[in-house]
Amino acid sequence: MGALAPQSSPRETLAALRAQYPDAPFLALGQTVFWDEPVKAVLRHMLDAFGLGGQMVLGVHDTDYFARARGLQGGRGRFVLLPHNDGTTRDLWSAAGEISTLFGCETFPRRQDYVRHGVPLERLARRSPEGRQAFIDRVTEAWGWRGLVYTGAQDLVVHYLPLKEVGDALLEMLQWGFENALVQIAPGCCQGEARQIAEMILDWCQEYRTQNPEKTLSHLFQHLLPRLYALLLGHAPDNVVVDCTASLLRLAPETADLPRFRFVDLFLNPATRAIAVQAYNEAVAGSEIYTLDRFGAGALPFDVVIPERGRGTLRVTPRVLFVETRQPVAIALKRPIESVQELAEVLSRRLGDQVTLVGKAVSLISMLAQEFIFVFNEEGSLYVRRTRRMNQILHSHGIALEMRPILRIRYHTWDALAVGRSTLRPAEHLVAAFGRQSITTPEFAAIWAQVVEEQRALCRDLAAIRKPVHLLEFLRDRQPVAQWEERLVAYQQAKATLRSLRVAAAAVQEEVQARYRRLQELRAESAAVQRAQGAHYREVTAWTPQELERRAEFDARFRAIETAKLRLRLEIEELKRRRWQIERGPEATEARRLLQEIEDEAELARLQIVRNALLTIEGLTHTNHRPSAWWLPMVDRTGEWFRRIAETAELYLEPLI
Q: In the beta sheet, which residues pair with residue 320?
């Protein structure tokens, strides 16, 4: 059973949840505070407005590694900002350090998207003066997104990443995002207020760094979360607790009996271990996620995070417990581990009481859903379907699971902008899509969905255009400027020139073919003369003057034929040279050059239209569901935009079993 469409009002959905799970906190867990995570303040707003209470845990998911980038040229520094594209950074993954400027997102136009819409991408890339790879990187780059990545060789777990190491790069990332947002807000309207918001957030970060030089990136994020909630809500949030994964999932003898670790027991208890491993493997089969056998004997779907040692897969065999960190940890066992309590005692005795046990992607949700109600936006978490599959398999084997459902929030971000009072000067692709250099926020809210559909239709129209002349006519009609009218006329004239030259070349070729036919006749005639001469030679018994004269006639005829053949070959060579001059001469060469130039110009124009359309379609659709929290006060300092998002948001439940 998948996600359920909203069928109840938000008040009814939340009231039912609070009644069924009165002690379950709502868990809002994210890897960065600079994306959509703080927008979940919508839930806090609803709970308070409806008088339903309920605690929210604002969590930083800090047990993953900070993103790394290998193979970069030297001199860039330990942390660098990179764009995402379908070229050199196609496999880039960044979560703890990423930012999307206003209207920006990580989604990029893929190479196959261009091809699907008729763009000869490889041809354009090969001919590009900047080089094939640079061209592909540029035209497939996501707009308005940068990922902060680490260039060193060490694995850095976010929870332990010192702020003094990453702080400067983090501020550079924020400044990039903020400055690119500010230029999209019209001066004299709200740009000054937006800049105050940007400077306030930067000041929060800088002040925390100065006062807490030994803290980590996770500590900064935890410091910022309630402040960003307050910025959106207009007041300090009540009934919230700020935490992080490393703390929530700290496994020690005194925490092992918490409900969040019950799920781990299924993989340790001899009565259920085989079934649990089978359920996990079946759930991830066919995906990019490894089945447990790929990690080695005794592997379980959990990682152990060890201070100063890193993170590694947990393997539990009857005699040895392994943690597959970069330098693996092996702990000899006096007896097999059969419960999470025993696991906690072994790990704490050997590695201390700050060890974290975190589920791999598919298992983490099942761990925490024993105790918390996960809060996701509509697009949050790619693995829920596989988590549900694993849980269902366990359930089918008679294993009881107490899983709280996921609470999904569906935002209507751009519709809600109707209450805004700003004037926007959006980026180039949005200017092309909306057909205007500036637009008020109410106007944007009124037409954005229509514009997205228009851009979809535009892409379909472009995909149907196959012939260059039709593309030129499309461009002329779409962009009624002299350029495309002139280029269409020039293209047609060049085509006409080549057609005229082809006619002339064809006439010459016909003369060539006529001479080849005559040459073939002469070859046959020559062969006949040689046969007759041979027969005469064999028949003659006495070489009288008459017979000698006859033989001389054969020789004369043969020489005449050979002379004619030679003359024909010379004529053919001369005609071929004339045909080549027609086909490859300056006039034809210039016409072909002009055709290629115009076709490439038209295809580059098609590419730009497709890029603008795809950035608009994917960008607005994606950000409608996942807006970066800091956009809201920048565009609307009054808080009306956030409140309208909260008023129009839909809630629905997604069961995990």
A: 332
Classified as helix, coil or strand, 457 is helix
pLDDT tens for 481-537 read 678 999 999 999 999 999 999 999 999 999 999 999 999 999 999 999 999 999 998
> Which element (helix H / strand E) includes 440?
strand 439-440
Q: Hunting for tokens 């495309």 — which residue is that? A: 484
Q: Domain residue spans in the chain?
A: 10-64+248-411+626-654
- 80 Cβ partners below 8 Å, 6+ apart? 69, 72, 148, 149, 151, 169
H helices, E strands: number in the chain: 23, 16
**How far apart are alpha carbons 93 and 404 in whole angstroms?**
30
- Burial class for 20, CB neighbours closer than 10 Å (0-12, 13-18, 19+): exposed
Euclidean distance between CA atoms 283 and 365, whole angstroms: 14
How does pLDDT run across 211-242, given as a tens digit for each residue?
999 999 999 999 999 999 999 999 999 999 99
Q: Residue 430, class by beta-carbon neighbours within 10 Å (0-12 exposed, 13-18 middle, 19+ buried)? A: buried
Tokens in use for 365? 């949700």
Q: Has residue 286 got a pLDDT over 70?
A: yes
- Is the pLDDT confidence value at 391 over 80? yes
Inform me whether the pLDDT recorded for 130 exceeds 50: yes
How far are the Cα atoms of 56, 376, 397, 564 from residue 5, in angstroms, in the given order? 23, 14, 29, 89
Closest CA to 390 of 282, 541, 255: 282
pLDDT at residue 473, as a whole number: 95
* Spatial contact of 629 and 138, defined as CB atoms under 8 Å apart: no
